[in-house]
């Protein structure tokens, strides 16, 4: 398996996870900046705009046009946002700079009485798996603590569907969703909450989100792709054939050069005898 970071923007709708809220999933390359757009071309008189982060529903930025107040609260949550938040004074959009995994999570922006938007932001890993193999997606927990709830969500088109949920002493696997494509293929680690997908096929490719509701509320996103071993072998065979063709070509050139030099040597010797 090999991993790399990707940058993309997808629209997801969460079914049975966050009700009917529409979220934008914004995947961010580590250390890059990301802007959460308010969808305003210009702030209006009287507008109040608030940006919050899902852990403790912490307020991280606030705009009050009437009071001429533009404030970022970058010291909340142990200062994880310190010197990273920037507000656009014209549109109210919020930019987070130097983004890392500790900033993964759900962000909400609200123009009071006008607009409400939510975003899932995450640095996420891509995992490539051979068809028929198992793959384990690590939740990065050493142990599930009392009060923690873990939910694994799978992206299907523009929808997010919960495939597993786990609370202390209670595990639920929803392997009958999506026409049963996950039936008898999902396994949750009771201690760590990590998810294993067995006998994986191309229909299981996609994005998987691990959401842990608890004291820290960490979030992880994985993009899983599946390759066919036959295609892999075909590619390898093509490379071997290419290399062999090149070697044959080199051998032919060597033989031709040798033949030409031999003929010239014979001609020179014949001329000397004359």
From TrEMBL:
This is Uncharacterized protein. Keywords: Membrane, Signal, Transmembrane, Transmembrane helix. The keyword RNA-binding does not apply. InterPro entries: Ig-like_dom_sf, Ig-like_fold. The chain crosses the membrane at residues 238-258. Residues 1-19 form the signal peptide. The lineage of its organism: Eukaryota, Metazoa, Chordata, Craniata, Vertebrata. It comes from Onychostoma macrolepis.
